[in-house]
Each structure stands twice: as C-alpha cells, then as structure tokens.
Amino acid sequence: MSTSSDCKVVFTEEQEALVVQSWNIMKKNSADLGLKFFLKIFEIAPSAQKMFSFLKESNVPLQHNSKLKSHAMAVFMMTCESAVQLRKAGKVTVRETTLKKLGAVHLKFGVVDEHFEVTKFALLDTIKEAVGEIWSEEMKSAWGEAYDQLVASIKAEMKPSSY
Amino acid sequence: MSTSSDCKVVFTEEQEALVVQSWNIMKKNSADLGLKFFLKIFEIAPSAQKMFSFLKESNVPLQHNSKLKSHAMAVFMMTCESAVQLRKAGKVTVRETTLKKLGAVHLKFGVVDEHFEVTKFALLDTIKEAVGEIWSEEMKSAWGEAYDQLVASIKAEMKPSSY
How many angstroms away from the CA of B47 is the closest CA of chain A? Predict the structure, then answer.
C-alpha cells in the first residue's frame, strides 16, 4: 500500500471542479509555472537551494538552470495532477514515482514542516497568479486541501525504517 | 560587547535615506503593520505559531489577539529602528533589549535559518504594501541588507554557552 494514503480522503465535487478548472488553464504552461513556483520557494527561503545537488554544482542563474526547470515542471505537474485525481482515485496518487520514494527522498534531505509550508504558500501564490480573475477563496481552499493531503501521504512515508 | 555586531557594517547613505524615507511613512501605523507582518509570517509558515506561548494559551483569532498585537508591534519597531540607526550607530542596535537576550530567546525556541528567511520575506512584503508607489528594488535591497545585519548580530549571540 506504499503508493496510497491511509487517511480517509475528503474532497468534495465542488473542490474537484475548482481544481480541474484551474488545472485546465495552467497545464499548457507547466514549464513556466513550475519554474515560477520554485523561484518563489527560493525567494522566500533561499537556504532551501542547498537541498538540490544540481544547484550546488552550477553557477548558472536559477531561472536559466535547465535541471531546475525540468525538476520544477515535474514537481508542479505531479502536485497538480495529484489534486485533479484525488476525488476519483479516492486517495493520493503520484505519477512517475511512488509515495514511498517521495517519503524517502524528503527524509534524506531533511525536509521539515516549515519547508512543506513555504512550498504550499508558493504553490497557492503561483496558481493565483496563473488563473487570474477566477481565483477565489474556495479555489485556494481546494488546492490547499489537496496539497495538505499530498503532504500527509508523503510524511506518512518519511520514516527512517518500516516496522 | 554583547549588544553590538562584530561584523563591519556596510550601509550606504543612499540605503539609509531609503530606509528613513519609508520608516517615516510607516511608523505612525506600527501597530497595524506589525500585526500584518506577523500574520504574513503565519500565513507562510503556520507552524511558527507554536513558538509563541501566548498563542498556545488562547483561542482568540490571531488578528484579535492583543498579546500578539503588542509583541508584533514591538518586533516591527525594533527591526525598523535598527535599520534606521544602522549607519549612524555603525552597528546593529536594538531597543528595550539586548542582542544577547535576543540571541538567547531565538536559540531557546529553536529558530533556524528558514524562520529568519520567511520573516525577511514577510517584512519586505509588509513594507512594500505599506509604502506603495515609492517601493523600488533599491529600497527592497536597503531593508534586506539592514535585516540581514540584524539577523547576523542575533545569530552571533545564538550560542549554547559563551566561550
């Protein structure tokens, strides 16, 4: 059961509709938005850069770092698609990896609550800017809920060893 | 020498002028701006609330918590006045306390780089909103530099014991 969340998923039809509506606007721009998302994380918390080995090895400005671009796009798509699929799947699902692997890598790099929180703020701010006038408190809350469930699923796998 | 920074202070006349100009606009609203500043910190990093004992004891919404209001105003004024005085004093100075006490309390509550970073982001965003049209990259940089020097001085006193 390593790729599914143990928490009971509560995500309403209205929340799903808001997430789907905004994702339909954003997905064609996943590369740009993913990069914006990560640049915002690093603007708020510059020290988070040290968690990414491909940034340590490079002197290229962040916004031109091709490894950051592709990583950021993948994370952004994974996060958004997890939200889009949350209600139908009835659980948190991630593409191209498993929650077990995500748990292990977040544990390895010392990710703590504060990092997940800054990332949530940056994600919501990125979506807000991307969707423009259709942004609302309800949409913010829907994305926030989906993100919280993704994080809860990752944290559930952030254990030094399995019992 | 516990209340002064050991770092050589580099803060230009231009930076001082930008900080003074914006502080003159803000200081009469220190209560409101201080609260905005802290609400922004908690919006970005909700878990930071657990560092404040007066928040744990209370069920009042954050924006109506009188202890938070007075604490936030004091921190905001201390931070801004430290910036305003930086050039003339030639070192980081803080009102109503000492850097040694600030170092001890930040150490006690487990403040790490990420907290100082989120606080910097929230401070700059609060000032940006407060000063309106006169905001500029140079003003951002002046406040950022003054904040960094304050943090460096606090961190210099964040030692479990003195040697």
Answer: 7
Tally Cβ neighbours within 10 Å of residue A22. 23
* Min Cα–Cα distance to chain A from B42, Å: 10
Q: Which of B33, B151, B147, B117 is nearest to A40 (CA)?
A: B117
pLDDT digits (tens, 9 = 90+) for A103-161: 999 998 889 899 999 999 999 999 999 999 999 999 999 999 999 999 999 999 998 76
Here the tokens at position B99 are 């850097």
> Per-residue DSSP letters for A73-130?
HHHHHHHHHHHHHHHHHSS---SSS-HHHHHHHHHHTT--HHHHHHHHHHHHHHHHHH
Residue written as token pair 């000032």: B127
Structure tokens at A31: 């590369």
Residues in CB range of A14: below 8 A, 6 or more apart: A138, A142
> 10 Å Cβ neighbour count for A33?
22
Instruction: Give contacts of A117 with chain B, Cβ < 8 Å.
Output: 44-47
The predicted model gives B44-65 an average pLDDT of: 90
ipTM for this prediction: 0.75
A–B CB contacts, 8 A cutoff, strictly below:
35
Report d(CA A69, CA A61) in Å as an integer.
11
Chain position carrying tokens 């954003």: A26
Its pTM stands at 0.83
A44 touches chain B (CB under 8 A): yes
